Here is the input.
Amino acid sequence: MKEHTTESPTWAGAEPALSVLIPFHGDDPRPLLEALDRQAAGLDGRIEIVVLDDGDPDRVRAGAVAADVAVLRAPARLVSVPNEGRARGRNRLARHARSERLLFLDSDMLPDDEDFLRRWAHVEAPVAFGGFTVDGAPVTPHTVLHQAMSRGSDCLPAAHRSRAPEKHVFTSNLLVRREVFECERFDESFTGWGWEDVEWAMRVGRRWPILHIDNTATHLGLDTAETLTRKYEQSAGNFARVLQAHPEIVARYASFRAARVLRRAPLRGLWRPMLKRLAVATAVPLKLRVAAAKTYRAACYAEVL
Here is the structure.
C-alpha cells in the first residue's frame, strides 16, 4: 500500500532507545504529541515518535497533525496511508520504528504525569503494560457508561492485572521489545473492533513473561453507550476466533462463562434488545445500566458459541 511520510527536523540521524507508536483514525492525537514532545525534551534524544494517519476521515485534522509533526522537537515521523485497520496499521508503525523497544499508545491517550516517558525509558522487560485510567476523561450522560465499565474491569492496578497477565493487555499503553514483536505480530486477519490485542498477548504469553506496571495514561476518548454496545456486537466474531485459537485461556474468563449460561436461555431474540435499551437509557440508574451492558455483551458472545 502506498504511503507518504513527513518528518520533523531532528528525525534524520537520530538513534532512539524508545519508539513511541501512535495510530489515529477519528481521534485527534495532537494533545498527546504535545505532551510527549515536552517529556522527550528531557531525555537527550532517546525518544522518537512515529504517527500513523490511518486514513483519518477528517482531512483538515490530518493536515494539522502533519503540520505539527513537522515542527516537533523530538525525532518524529508521520506515515499517511488509506485506512487499513487496527492490527495492520500497528504492524506498519513497527516497521518504521528504529529502536529496539516499541511503545504503542492510542491517539486518545494522555500521560498521567510528567515522568511517563522517563519510566518507560528504563523498562527492559520483553512485554510490559502500563495500565490506563478514565477518571480525568470528559464525561457526559452519554459516555458515563463507558467510564463506569472501564473503571470496573480495565482500570486496575498492576498487582490485580498480573493475576491474568494476557487478559489485561491493550495497545493503549503497551511496551514490546523488537525481538518479541518480530516473532509475534498483530494478526492482520482480525477485522472490526476488539480482541486482537488480547489474542496477541495470549500468543506472546506462551513464550515470554508479561510485566504489568503502574505507569498510566488517561483514556480521553470515551464512547457513547450506543457506540459501546455496537462495538460489543462487532466484537462477537473476534471473540469466536480467540475462543477457537485459545480455548483453555478463554474458558477462564467471566465473559465466556456468562455467554455459555445465556446460550441455554430461551427467547434471546426477545430479551436481548431490552438489555441494550436499558444500557443506553440515560435515565436508568448507572448500576443497572452497567449490569445490562455486561449481560448484553455476554448475550452477543452467546450467539457465536
Remarks:
- The first helix runs from residue 30 to 40.
- The CA atoms of residues 167 and 253 lie 9 Å apart.
